[in-house]
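This section describes the prediction task in plain terms. A model, or a person checking by hand, is given the sequence of a single protein chain and must write out its three-dimensional structure as a string of tokens. No templates, partner chains or ligands are provided. The sample shown here is typical of the held-out split.
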Amino acid sequence: MNDFSPRFWLIFFELYESLPRQGPGNRDSAAKALALCRDLPPRPTVLDLGCGTGGQTLDLADLTAGSITAMDSHAPHIDRLRDQAVKRGLSGRIWPMVGNMAESGLPCASFDLVWSEGALYNIGLPNGLRVCYELLRPGGYLAFTDPVWRKDNPPPAVKESFELDYPGMGRVSDVLAAIEKSGFSLIGHFTLPDEAWWDNFYTPMEIGIDKLRSRYANDVEALAVLDQLAQEPKMHRKDCEYYAYEFFIARRIR
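The expected answer:
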């Protein structure tokens, strides 16, 4: 994580732990990506890497008949997903676990599908692709989203924002080259629609920020952090033509 104050991270997680998703995505996009994984077994063994609170994990449980191991490094995210799985009667199919995706400790070649929405870049995309390749069975599928530039010369604030989290962010062609270099066969890719940013991510985020402003009305430091967090959806509303999230689907052939 970047060099922000401890108070920043406390408020950041207070906000993000309350959101349905911790990044762009929606059920329709998940269904579209899953439809490209045409040769999955009837009950696939799925791994969701960097699952957050599990918005997409729960979608995968609805869209497949398989079992899903869901991993995230932040224990409160896993606690929330575990509670949701129990409430929905899915505790026998969803297995939440705290772990480091770079060193998961999971057995190699043990999954039919590895899924990761907006998380692989946290360990470096080439490393993330290597990790996924090793965890997949031959013939298994990888479905992941990654932020990409759409236009050159983004406004300085946009460039600075993404470089804080993803200094190596490239274009779609750069990700395709990394997929090929990692030994995968590309199946397809598509851009997430704008509603995938708003419905379960930025709209709940703005509502959550407003609630926290009321809670911290007399806390100058907290309000400054919330002002900082509020810049992200504002930036997207103004400058989203410069960047996107792309869904990539690939297959381990051997």
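For orientation: The chain is about 45% helix and 20% strand.
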